[in-house]
Amino acid sequence: MAVGVFDSGLGGLTVLDALTKRLPDVPFIYFGDNAHAPYGVRTADDIFALTCAATERLWAEGCNLVILACNTASAAALKRMQETWVPSDKRVLGVFVPLIEALTERQWGDNSPPREVAVKHVALFATPATVASRAFQRELAFRAIGVDVEAQPCGGVVDAIEQGDEILAEALVRSHVEALKRRMPNPEAAILGCTHYPLMEKVFQDALGAGVRVYSQANLVAESLADYLTRRPEFRGTGAQSKFLTTGVPAQVSNKATQFLRRKITFQAA
Predict the structure, then answer these.
(1) How far apart are CA 106 and CA 250, in angstroms?
(2) For residues 9 and 6, what is the distance between their CA atoms, to the nearest angstrom?
(3) Which backbone phi and psi does 256 adopt, to 5 degrees?
(4) DSSP string covering 169-194, please?
């Protein structure tokens, strides 16, 4: 009954942490494609190919349901995967769906026409590839009228977080927030559109100001998955044991992951 969790690097561990707390009886198999990270600067075709390869590896581990705990993969590859590649007995889900559900205050299955929502000015912080895909704006437009989204590609932040350089990561976050606020001085809400960014949530909040509601993904994704598995229990796969897999060097990735989550994490070669 294992569920697969995929990310290009370590950011998806923030989602995994929330998932394991919300669903303690479900085994999760985490796959980090650390050898090819970061995805945020890659082409859409490259991201699609790498994400498909990782998903197949998780299917081989008995995960009939795979969560793309990577906004770049969710934005650049998920729609194409679901339309052209995923077989009927498997499911691949992304992480920005629950965010948009929360922001627009409507359920994903609600296909009624777009309507007015309370929030009108939204700041989106994400990787360059996620911003370029315009996936957030596209999905929001299906559900909400008159929402102005200002997107800021946050180059360098993922690399700094993965390298454990908190001082650089904080400086970059403040710089990106300042750049966005020059274009949108008074955002009402901010979307942290990368699974690495919850580690910098306090910095984002401080830089944006107390009046801006910051939407972070991990807990929203955990609640959404719990609801999904209640409705679709057949997608609990055959895998029975939690594990961490990486395309990188296991010892190096384990050390970084342990620092990242501040608890012992041991990866094995994928």
Answers:
(1) 41
(2) 9
(3) -65, -40
(4) HHHHHHHHHHHHHHH-SS-SEEEE-S
Q: 204-238 pLDDT, tens per residue?
A: 999 999 999 999 889 899 999 999 999 999 998 78
Answer for the pair 208, 177: CB distance below 8 angstroms, yes or no.
Answer: yes
Q: Is residue 122 within 8 Å of 177, Cβ to Cβ?
A: no
Q: Helices in the chain by DSSP H: which ranges? A: 12-22, 44-60, 71-76, 78-84, 96-104, 128-133, 135-143, 157-162, 166-183, 201-208, 218-231, 250-261
239, pLDDT greater than 80? no
Report d(CA 99, CA 192) in Å as an integer. 9
Res 149: pLDDT: 95
Distance CA 5, CA 54 (A): 10
Which tokens in the block code for residue 200? 């910098």
Quick check: is 194 catalytic? yes
What CA–CA distance (Å, rounded) separates 212 from 229? 32
The catalytic residue among 52, 63, 154, 194 is 194
Whether the per-residue pLDDT at 91 is higher than 70: the answer is yes
Domain 97-215 sits in CATH at: 3.40.50.1860
CATH of 3-94+218-269, one of 3.30.70.260, 3.40.50.1860, 3.20.20.70, 3.40.50.620: 3.40.50.1860
Of the candidates 60, 62, 71, which has an alpha carbon nearest to the alpha carbon of residue 6? 71
Q: How confident is the model at residue 108 (pLDDT cuts 50, 70, 90)?
A: low
Residue 52 appears among annotated catalytic residues: no
Residue closest to 152 by CA, chosen among 206, 202, 193 = 193
Whether the domain at 3-94+218-269 and the domain at 97-215 fall into the same CATH topology: yes
Cα 62–Cα 22–Cα 51 angle in degrees, nearest 5: 40
Active-site annotation holder among 52, 63, 70, 154? 70
Q: What pTM does this model have?
A: 0.88
